[in-house]
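hiii, so i know i said id send this last week but things got crazy w the move. better late than never?? heres the sequnce for the chain we talked about at the cafe, plus the structure i predicted for it. fair warning i was half asleep when i ran it
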Amino acid sequence: MSPVIRTTERRRSETPAGVMTTLASPTVGDTAGLSMWEVEMRAGASGPLHVFDSEQIWTVLDGELSVAIDGQREDVRSGDTVVIPADLERQIFARTDARILVCGHANAIARVPGEPGPRGTPAWIA
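okay and structure toks below
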């Protein structure tokens, strides 16, 4: 398999929080366990309060976010990188229109506090 992943191979997933575009994953380019995706959020949008069982790295390419990790909220903007540890509650808020590059483990399992079971691996990560 070619190490190059073409633009036409990307996968796009839409949620109420934003648009996630899979750039590389075991199902897009056949990585050995890492995933990279781009997140686009509109000003005022927010993701759900949730937890992943592995760490993620978020780099803000454009715009401004507020990131809440384990109850501590940080404002970040273009050029800033946030390392989100595994097993901590997190929530992302778009202060402006924003574009973010994210890297994490392709087998990451998400769960939402208060729900009876895990939600599994989101499509844009798998």
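btw The chain is about 0% helix and 50% strand. thought thatd interest u
miss u guys!!
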